Amino acid sequence: MRDAPSRRHFLAGASAAFAATAVAATGAAATLTALPGCATAPPAKASPPDVLLVTLCSARADRLGASGYATRPTTPNLDRFAATAARFSHAWANGTWTNAAHASLLTGLLPGHHRVEDQLDKLVPGAPTLPGLLAAAGWRTGALLQEQGAMTLDARSDLLRDVSKVLDTPDLRRFSPDALVEWIGRDAAPFFALVTLREAHLPYGDGGAFGAALHPDVVAWRAALPRPGSGEAAVWADASDPNAWIAARAAADPAVRASLDLAYDAGLAAADAAFGRLLTALEATGRLANAVVVVVGDHGEALPGHKDRLDRAVLRVPMLIRAAGLQAVAVADTVSQVDVLPTVLGLAGLPLPKLRDGQDLGPALRGEALPERGALSQAFPRDGSGALRVRSAYAKGALRVVQAESAAGAEPGSVARGSAEREAADGRVSTEPPGPAVDALVAEMTALAADTWVPAGPAAPVSAAVREQMRARGYW
Ligand SMILES: [Zn+2]
User: Fold this and answer.
1) Is residue 238 scored above 60 in pLDDT?
2) How far is C-alpha 307 from the geometric centre of its chain's CA atoms?
3) Backbone angles phi, psi at 289, to 5 degrees
4) For the packed helices 216-224 and 242-252, what is the interaxial angle rounded to 10 degrees?
5) Residue range 33-45: average pLDDT?
6) Most-buried pick from 34, 37, 116, 444 (CB within 10 A)?
7) pLDDT class for 11, splitting at 50, 70, 90?
8) Is the confidence at residue 203, as pLDDT, over 50?
9) Mean pLDDT throughout 4-28?
10) How far is the CA of 199 from the centre of ligand 1 (A)?
11) Higher-pLDDT residue of 366, 457
């Protein structure tokens, strides 16, 4: 049941532009430390705003402190930011892995529309991109990628075709915002910057951030996975698939399961620390006061793995949006990554492209009701023969349906009955029995999947060596 007005409430006392004192998203009063530079931030300039898009690889919405996670203090920096922003509690990833999700974020198109499925796939011809649209209106465009050598989103990717300056983080395990700050400081013209933070991606962290040692099995699993940029995959002595091995160990032994959780939390905490360094550095430039800042997970994590999985843990992602002049607000409407492009363009005062699948979330940022929309997520696994399969999941309000494994073939016209689940107000999820509500949602999902299906763009060949490294990292 949807009851947007009662589930959305302004967080009184928190200004979207750098509140020193805020009210936590739970509604309980909390005093928070001012963000660095807040007290001395200059008054907001007139438009156009700078645009900062921060993506958190493998970030599960339910592991943020701002979402109520209390097992460990995973995200103090994100929590402080969330208290000054619009926090979307029901945000869904449209893709199940880095490139597919970033394609939806950067184009505003669903996976069937942009057709980025593999490592070096190109976007379908004519697909608009957020940096391209902003560049045409006078913005500078840059990206700081904690991805170089990670074999996913990097400077070769067609997703960045409209980004004029692609910057690298020299040390993937020690994020530095310095290069981005230097680039921003070169010019007073408004900028668009994409920053990817990837520490929450497997093999996660080592647990030391929380003063705990990992289980030996988790230590062995982490050692078996090649680090981004490390080159050759390590030899795995006991099994050909380290993720399947650790998943079996975790299912059999609660201590291994708990240690995997700890490792993931440590990875997320490292990403949060990187976000804190980024925000501190950008606050010091004085340019965030008038900026649109979007922080979003590209996909979650099923501990371990995510690609081609339609689990709730993989698809429910954090989404935070802050812009000058807007108050912090909690939004429970169903939204997804394709909404980011129209929302940013709306905040920048620019027209929306004709080809788009998302909606402008501007009304929600102002505390107004949104038209009710569903969130479509899709995966395109390939079977043993290399044939493309299509799987979809669709969430709307409290109800979610997940398509059963489809027959081989690329057309998504026939959506077999899969599973359905309902989320209670307290967040608990239960199986939803068959009935008219499920049938209606499946029909919506089927129609949307068919409507947004287009022929693929030209795919770049992936070498056997890269494919093997990607597989070792859990991608194929
Ligand atoms: Zn990712």
Assistant:
1) no
2) 13
3) -60, -30
4) 170
5) 40
6) 116
7) very low
8) yes
9) 32
10) 10
11) 366
Q: Examine the pLDDT at 130 and tell me if it is beyond 50.
A: yes
Q: Which pair of tokens denotes residue 173?
A: 């395990």
Q: What would the pLDDT profile of 384-414 be if each residue is shown by its tens digit?
A: 777 777 889 999 999 999 986 654 443 443 4
Q: How far is the CA of 45 from the centre of ligand 1 (A)?
A: 34
Structure tokens at 249: 């160990």
Separation of CA 334 and ligand 1 centre (Å)? 21
Rounded to the nearest angstrom, the distance between the alpha carbon of 316 and the centre of ligand 1 is: 13
CA of 38 to the centre of ligand 1 (A): 31
Cα(143) to centroid(ligand 1), Å? 15
Gap between the Cα atoms of 159 and 152, Å rounded:
11
Q: 113 CA distance to ligand 1 centroid (A)? A: 20
Domains of the chain and CATH, by start: 4-203+259-374 (3.40.720.10)
CA of 216 to the centre of ligand 1 (A): 26
What string of DSSP letters covers 269-297?
HHHHHHHHHHHHHHHHHT-GGG-EEEEEE
Distance between Cα 64 and ligand 1 center (Å): 17
Report the Cα 184 to chain-centroid distance in Å.
Answer: 24
Max mean pLDDT among 24-33, 70-79, 113-122, 194-203 falls in 70-79
For residue 323, the CA-to-ligand 1 centroid distance in Å is 25
Distance from the alpha carbon of residue 130 to the mean position of ligand 1, in angstroms: 19
Nearest-CA neighbor of 341 among 171, 2, 107?
107
Q: 215 alpha carbon to ligand 1 midpoint, in Å?
A: 25
pLDDT at 382: 76
Task: Write the single-letter amino acid at 77.
Answer: N
